[in-house]
Amino acid sequence: MANIDPYAALRFREFNIFLLLRFVLVFAWSMQFIVIEWQVYTLTKDPLSLGIIGLMEIIPALSMALFAGHIVDQREKRNLFLCCIGLFSLISLCLFFLSEASIMASWGQKSILYSIYGFVFFGGLLRAFFGPTIFSLVSLIVPKKVYPNAATWNSSTWQMASILGPAVAGLTINWLGVHWSLCIVFVLVVISFLLGLLISKKPVLNPKIGEPIIQSLKEGVRFVFKTKAILGALSLDMIAVLFGGAIALLPVFAQDILKVGPEGFGVLRAAPAVGAFITMLTTAYIPISRKAGMKLLVAVFGFGISIIVFGLSSVFWISVFALFFSGITDGVSMVIRQTILQLKTPDHMRGRVSSVNSMFVGSSNELGAFESGLTAKLMGTVTAVVFGGTMTLITALTTGLVSPSFRNLDLEKDLEAHEN
After folding, report:
1. Which CATH class is domain 210-420?
2. Does the predicted TM-score (pTM) go above 0.85?
3. What is the C-alpha to C-alpha distance for residues 148 and 286, in angstroms, rounded to an integer?
4. Interior CA angle at 214 toward 212 and 217, to 5°?
5. Left (φ > 0), alpha (ψ -120 to 50) or beta: where does 291 sit?
6. What count of other Cβ atoms lies within 10 Å of the Cβ of residue 102?
7. Do 1-199 and 210-420 come out as alike in CATH topology?
8. 158 within 8 A of 21, measured Cβ to Cβ
9. pLDDT 10s per residue in the chain (420 long)?
């Protein structure tokens, strides 16, 4: 292999534009979600209303995922991406007007609340298209030999925006209020749309344009389940998030177990994100494509260990370190998974494969929160977290033992093939 270039993907102008666009878009989306949560809870004072927000987004996102993948594979990616951003800007604009004081006073609480849920539902439909469109577009912006480096920078950008968006939302709600916070979101989305215009249109590489949708969807799902590297990576990530969802129980730990209040809760919430972000930047300099299967198994195993330590800890800083380490291992897992998907997926099937990925990952996040809440109710909070971490360990060990092909997966040959 040639000398490692940690900035290989950044040497392509359109990829830099894409990263800036994605940062602004994810920042705005994350910020908007926090502002909406604040507004809804202010209206209702009911924690269940916060759960309904997540439900209103995930139901259409999962329901439309496979259909969205089919559409993405049939369409030109740059314009489809711009269309999604444009529709998202309309949602942001409507939420901005909906939060205006005179409208809120005249409409009434229920009308405002149901309208917000409706716009969140529409945003869930768009979420189904964003994932496969972004995944497909990246592969058309950079050559295959720099896919691992592009995956690292792409994931790092997403992680940074996901950290900063909610933090800034909290500040702007305090300084400017909900109304003008949503105005900022709208402006950011418009900026991301303008940045998208700087990216050129891309060729449609699908040779089966006009293929019947049922046949197309079957082909996409069949490919994922036939490709052991992709199926193994998605399954490991889904199980780890499903059973290792300690994040959903952080308010309980902060208030009742560690007794650290809102300030400590903020530190606990940020710890895994900071760990993941540091890992993603590090992998730009230390690529992890060699022996990728074993590294992914070790990362998932380490994630399980960190969740168990967190569950058993009654010392605040040990808990913070455990969550920080969970973010490090999750960051390794995320970069390897994205690299496997990019290298193993044919160009004409990227939309459908990414949609299946979003179903695995998206459903596991929400179901993981539900599983954590249910097991905490049945077993107790600490036992539930330790149980989840243990299940993650068992999954990693079992996968390594029963699937030697995945354990021995090495992406170096794929990269060398694309360089030659």
Report:
1. mainly alpha
2. no
3. 11
4. 105
5. left
6. 7
7. yes
8. no
9. 446 788 899 999 999 999 999 999 999 998 898 888 888 878 887 756 766 777 788 888 888 888 898 899 889 999 999 999 999 999 999 999 998 876 777 788 888 999 999 999 999 999 899 989 998 999 899 998 888 888 888 888 887 888 788 778 878 888 888 999 999 999 999 999 999 999 999 988 777 776 777 887 788 888 888 888 888 888 887 777 777 666 667 767 887 888 887 667 767 877 888 888 888 778 878 777 788 889 889 999 999 999 999 999 989 999 999 999 998 998 888 888 888 888 888 888 888 888 888 777 766 665 666 666 677 778 888 888 899 889 889 988 988 888 888 888 888 766 665 555
Q: Which two tokens stand for residue 403?
A: 């699937």
Is 199 in contact with 76 (CB distance < 8 Å)? Answer: no
Encode 376-392: b = buried (16+ Cβ within 10 Å), e = exposed: beeeebbebbbbbbbbb
Residue carrying structure tokens 């370190």:
321
Helix (H) / strand (E) containing 85: helix 77-98
CA 363 – CA 204 distance, rounded (Å): 29
CA 193 – CA 144 distance, rounded (Å): 26
Q: What is the CA radius of gyration of the chain?
A: 21
Q: Domain residues of the chain, as ranges?
A: 1-199, 210-420
Is the CB of residue 22 less than 8 Å from the CB of residue 141?
no
CATH number of 1-199: 1.20.1250.20
Tell me if 242 sits within 8 A of 368, measured CB to CB: yes
